Amino acid sequence: MKIASWNINSVRFRIDIVEQFLREESPDILCLQETKVIDGDFPEAPFRALGYDHVIKHGQRMHHGVAILSRVPVVEDDRFDWQANGEARHVGVRLPNGVRLENVYVPAGGDTPDRNVNPKFGQKLDFVERMTRWSEDLRVPSILVGDLNIAPLECDVWSHKALLDVVSHTPVEVEAMGRLQAAHDWVDLGRTFIPAPERCFTWWSYRAKDWAASDRGRRLDHMWASPEVAKAATGHKVHEPCRSWLKPSDHVPIVTEFDF
To answer: Could you report the per-residue pLDDT of 187-213, keeping only the tens digit for each?
Structure first.
């Protein structure tokens, strides 16, 4: 089974490259973040035409939103409000083998890494803390995917020194992510198959005139698994070429293969 995750930054605006990716990579399941569309306007037809008949969506007008598109039967299992304000940032399903798949979009956190002057940063830290409390009680074999908006390792960013005070790579965020990972002994599948300090980025800013030449990337997108599920993982890939496609997202898809 191939499971893909992609912050698409508007699924309707970028439906052409989503279809291209599905035709070329053919994952069994695609988890999307930042779909930016209410459920009633979600473009289901292109997915169903490609065989993705199981459409689980949790949308919101113009902002946020997550969706799971699957060729295999899945059953919606939960929608957690880790933001504590009703934003559409999570949806979970159960796979046919009983494994739970959680698709999450962690808030970016604004520009200033100080919750006293930037409430968005505090919301991000609180979001991760609620995920941590949930992880502590988790007993079901699970896969956690999505845009976690934190690059934890020094080699997960183009310059550790330059980004120490930049939201997504600050010590307080990295420490929070470490507590989240430890709460369930989550296995970071990206760094299992692309071990540190090897370069591994999933996001490049739109501000760069030539993203590939400057290569100022960050690894913000992740795929984690419960220890028993991680044993079934056989490969992981970051699809960097998608960043150069027509009307690209600033994120690229990640794909993990499992031998279930």
So the answer is: 999 999 999 999 999 999 999 999 999
| Residues 231/245, Cβ–Cβ less than 8 Å | no
Tokens of 139: 């007993």
Tokens 């990716």 correspond to what residue? 21
Higher pLDDT among residues 209 and 7, named by residue: 7
Taking only the tens place, the pLDDT of each residue in 12-57 is 999 999 999 999 999 999 999 999 999 999 999 999 999 999 999 9
CA distance 218 to 209: 17
| CATH number given to 2-258 | 3.60.10.10
To the nearest 10°, report the CA torsion of 166, 111, 205, 186.
Answer: 60
End-to-end CA distance of the chain: 7
What number of CA atoms fall less than 13 Å from residue 41's CA on the CB side? 13
214: phi then psi, degrees, rounded to nearest 5: -75, -35
What are the start-end ranges of the H helices in 42-96? 44-49
152 Cβ contact list (under 8 Å, min separation 6): 174, 177, 178
4: which strand partners?
30, 255
Statement: the pTM of the whole predicted model exceeds 0.70: yes
